[in-house]
Amino acid sequence: MIQYGRQSIDDSDVEAVVSALRSDWLTTGPAVDRFEADVSRIAGAMLPAVAVTSGTAALHTAYRAARVGPGTEVVTTPLTFAATAATAALLGATVRFADVDEKTGNLDPDAAAAAVTRRTAVIAGVDYAGVPVDASRLSAVARSADAVFLEDAAHSIGSFLNGVPVGSLADITTFSFFPTKNATTAEGGAVVTSDSGLWDRARAFRNHGLVREAERQRHPDEGPWHQEVADFGLNYRMPDVLAALGSSQLLRLTLFKSRRAAIFDRYRAGLSGIDGLSLPSAPSGADPMWHLYAVRVPAEERRRLFETLRADGIGVQVNYIPVYWHPAFEDLGYRRGLCPVAEEWYRREISLPMHAGLSDSEVDLVIERVRKAFGS
């Protein structure tokens, strides 16, 4: 089976992890500091990244930093993994789903604007497949609502929009380092912002809300050992072992991007001209780190094509079921039909294998099997 996505690990990654294991620190140590600096540099942020245990933890932390909670609303896309919305709902917010752009699958700024209310706290766009959201327009929507613009960049570390790196386009940005992502820490995520208030709250939340600085404590005279929980947080600290792997991976991020771009181009050349097959593309100004190769097929043919390709050893996937179709959201009163463009995208979408470890011969085999499935 040619896998839809997988990690790319080499000897330098193994050596980095072994070095961390042999150090005095397994968690909350210098490897985490280094990884946070590395992520911040790639993202073009003014402050160190806040490393956490997963992309989901990054979203939870970012929403909490943006003061999402009961009585607030988050406007976001349904064409994403459930965590983009679930983490806001877990904080007590109401999620308002807005439809997507038919060409990119990203949150449509006009639809987002139409979903804004006086309770909107965050506009959360997702960089579907690695293509950056329309940041200037979504930022304007957020500003008009006095809301925070959050970019869920789980797919897009290493992407640029008009020469600006993802991580510098929004008020706050979240990354994922799951094994199928563009670079991995095995499990992990990060929050990036240049806003000192958001940054301070994010760092506190990922470490139980602890305050160690005497000048910020309510009872600073307790003793030199004293620490206080000023606001509730969670243990989302990333271990040094995983951070060391992440820093090693980020050294090859440019190579990963180049290889993914070559695979993208090879697919486009090999799959062009098939009736009923719509290939992905990037809008003007976007320089994506291609995380997915998301094609669209006739809806009535999608299941047959999916099952045929799986049977032929091609590990295709579907990204994503609209979030509000999940029972947890249905039970909150969301109903199908809310975002028709996103729902039609889902009905037609199949993701072909896309990761830096794919060989040209494997890509060619995928092309051959897709053409065969279409009878082309």
Uncertain spans = none
Widest sheet, order of strands = 1-9-8-5-4-2-3
Q: In which range does the helix fraction lie? A: 25-40%
* Subunit arrangement of the protein: single chain
Q: Kindly name the structural category.
A: alpha/beta
Average pLDDT, rounded to a whole number, is 97
| Distance between the first and last residues' Cα | 22 Å
Description:
By secondary structure, the chain is α/β, with parallel strands linked by helices. It folds into two domains: 240 residues, 3-Layer(aba) Sandwich (Aspartate Aminotransferase, domain 2), CATH 3.40.640; 122 residues, Aspartate Aminotransferase, domain 1, CATH 3.90.1150.10. The protein is built from 13 helices and 14 strands. A seven-stranded mixed β-sheet has the order 1-9-8-5-4-2-3, with helices on both faces. α6 links the parallel β4 and β5. α9 runs parallel beside α13. The longest helix has 19 residues. The chain starts with 10 loop residues before the first helix and ends with a helix. The mean pLDDT is 97. Pfam families: DegT_DnrJ_EryC1 (PF01041). Belongs to the DegT/DnrJ/EryC1 family.
